[in-house]
Amino acid sequence: MSGDGFFTSRGMTVKVSGLTKLYKTSAEEVKALKGIQWEVGPGEAVAIMGPSGCGKTTLLNLLGGVDHPSEGQIQVGEQKVTSLTERELERYRLLKVGFVFQFFNLIPTLTALENLDLPMLIAGIAPSERAKRGEGLLDMVGLREKGYKRPEELSGGEQQRVAVALALANDPSLILADEPTGNLDTENTGAIAALFSSLASHYGKTVIMASHDPKAVEPFTKVFQMRDGRFI
Question: Which domains does the chain have, with CATH numbers?
Answer without folding.
Answer: 4-231 (3.40.50.300)
